[in-house]
Write a structure and sequence with these properties.
Helices cover 82% and strands 0% of the residues. With 177 residues, the protein is an all-alpha fold.
């Protein structure tokens, strides 16, 4: 029991020391890499959170510092990919007429409720693709997943919406049948 407590204490100290030593180096590296000190600090903290989460595995590595820098670099690249995709989406939305705000008709409310009932990832893919007017590639970047996953999620969402009884009844009323 005492030995286990000492191991845990040593483990925590090593983790604390590693994070303390690496944080300034990591912020400096990321500041140079991305050109924004505030973003660099945020990304360094995110990378160190991964170290904390994976510490039992990380501490056994030959060069945990290299692993940390690879994680930080990946996080930085993902951050800027998402930022670029969001900027393109905003640009497209700004250049389109404001047709996204629709009156609260029964049809609109039924569609909104149906979309809200979808699983989170399906809803995200559907809304980004069709209401956010993003391409599959951009949606994948925003969602941080492969393009194939976006296609699958979108397909499942559309299929789920087609199968909903409330939307079927709405189609019948709209068609006059």
């Amino acid at each position: 029991m005492l030995l286990e407590g000492l191991r845990k204490e040593r483990h925590t100290y090593e983790l604390d020391a590693f994070c303390r030593d690496q944080y300034p180096r990591l912020v400096g590296f990321l500041s140079l890499y991305c050109g924004d000190a505030d973003v660099a600090e945020e990304l360094a903290q995110d990378a160190l959170m991964r170290v904390v989460r994976d510490w039992p595995r990380v501490q056994k590595m030959d060069t945990p510092e290299a692993w940390l820098h690879r994680v930080a670099l990946n996080l930085t690249n993902s951050f800027f990919r998402r930022r670029a995709a969001e900027a393109r989406a905003k640009e497209r939305l700004a250049s389109q007429p404001e047709t996204y705000i629709q009156p609260a008709t029964p049809e609109h409310l039924a569609v909104r409720e149906a979309v809200a009932a979808l699983p989170r990832r399906q809803k995200t893919a559907l809304v980004l693709r069709y209401f956010g007017a993003l391409f599959v590639r951009e949606t994948a970047q925003v969602m941080d997943c492969p393009e194939g996953t976006v296609k699958t999620l979108t397909h499942k969402a559309i299929r789920a919406l087609r199968d909903l009884q409330q939307l079927e009844e709405l189609r019948e009323v709209s068609d006059g049948t």
